[in-house]
Amino acid sequence: MPLSSSSTSSTKSIRRAASELERSDSITSQRFMGRRQSLIEDARKEREAAAAAAEAAEATEQIVFEEEDGKALLNIFFTLRGSKTTALSRTLKVFETFESKIHHLETRPCRKLKDNLEGLEYFVRCEVHLSDVSTLISSVKRNAEDVKTTKEIKFHWFPKKIADLDRCHHLVTKFDPDLDQDHPGFTDPVYRQRRKMIGDIAFGYKHGQTITRVEYTEEEINTWREVYSTLRDLYSTHACSEYLEAFRLLERHCGYSPDNIPQLEDVSCFLRERTGFLLRPVAGLLSARDFLASLAFRVFQCTQYIRHASSPMHSPEPDCVHELLGHVPMLADRTFAQFSQVFTQGFHSTSRAGKLQYIFYFTLYWFTVEYGLCKQNGEVRAYGAGLLSSYGELVHSLSDEPEVREFDPETAAVQPYQDQDYQPVYFVSESFSDAKEKFRAYVAGIKRPFSVKYDPYTSSVEVLDNPLKIQGGLEGLKDELKVLTDAIGVLS
């Protein structure tokens, strides 16, 4: 809310300023007896003080914040010109000086700068002492441009058309070989340069383009071969039947073999014909929001680089081994592909129902799509990508060591998960269809501001937030049901 929205506040500020001047004049008269100021000088000072007070009141009225426990919660937008880090350092120093607690920081390329200058727009949500609000804003303005505040956006932007995915590049720097000292490639400048080169393909990619092919090195192919050969020997006894069928098709049509790392463009064309899924190159670990939002359009964000040669059986981050061996075969199955899309369509609204629900949602994804187990012919088999791309955890998951529970969304959503070691607990589903129905029932119980519906004809997501939109969706459903009814009549 604004600090002040009435003229009364401005009037009080002017009176207070005038009172301060009178007090100041009184002190001055005591110190300099006999010195008399002219009426013109007095009037000038009073006018300047009033103008300053009015300007301060006007500036204060423009600041929007929320008050909580004696603190101000601010949403600040500002722009920094150029690519130098000095301006950013000075600006962040302002927040540090005022002991601000930054809750969220996000950037995007600035589109407003003139003369073709480069720059970034920043969004910062922070917590600061109430008494420091105006001064903090003034200090930020000395270092940045277009500084403004706004109320919290309850319904954040998310992609509604498949082409909007071009705007989703929120990479997570966790496990980045340039920054993470524990990454196997941190001390290898050749590997890091190679990663940058492959990453640039993803940053330059736009929806609808052909995915640039990568000429993999002998060392990279050797790494792929070691993992591929080891896992393939294990799949027949540990992977679900849907995975095995798709894997055979990928070997036949997409160049899957120990001596060849498949190209994303070839695999994407194969998936499109099988289930309507597409691959899109990504440069590294993507934010959960952007990754799950992509799946709602049947787009899978896929890395092209491969893990470091010194650690072929383990990678701290997603790489093409994890994507191509773990995720892709399951996305070639129609039932699982539908489960993946249904799972993520509810994410748009559920993630805005509260931070806790957002965490629950991602945890469910972890224990199903990444580390899920299912029953087949009286045996437990793996369908999770994190299992099917990791020899050690695949063996561990079907051993007697971990605890295996029946899949229940309520329980799985609050189960702590492990991203640095093997999971101590796994959840097993009766089938993909069973998991899908249980998940739908779970999401239906979450209070959400809206629902969404995917339109395959326009590759867009429609927000269902009023009865008219829902009625339109029902009309389309009636047409589809009529086609199926007619088909039954032809066969009978």
Give the tags.
alpha/beta; four-stranded mixed beta sheet; metal-binding; Tyrosine 3-monooxygenase; Aro-AA_hydroxylase_C_sf
Spatial separation of the terminal alpha carbons: 66 Å
- Biggest sheet, in brief? 5 strands, antiparallel
Number of strands: 13
Cα radius of gyration in angstroms: 29 Å
Mean pLDDT score: 82
Structural class determined from secondary elements: alpha/beta
- In helices, the fraction of residues equals 40-55%
Number of helices: 18
Hey, roughly how much beta strand do the residues contain?
15-25%
The residue ranges in which pLDDT falls below 50 over 5 or more consecutive positions are 1-18, 20-37, 53-61
Shape: globular
Subcellular location: Cell projection, Axon; Cytoplasm, Perinuclear region
GO cellular component, one term: perinuclear region of cytoplasm
Catalytic activity: (6R)-L-erythro-5,6,7,8-tetrahydrobiopterin + L-tyrosine + O2 = (4aS,6R)-4a-hydroxy-L-erythro-5,6,7,8-tetrahydrobiopterin + L-dopa
Region (Disordered): 1-27
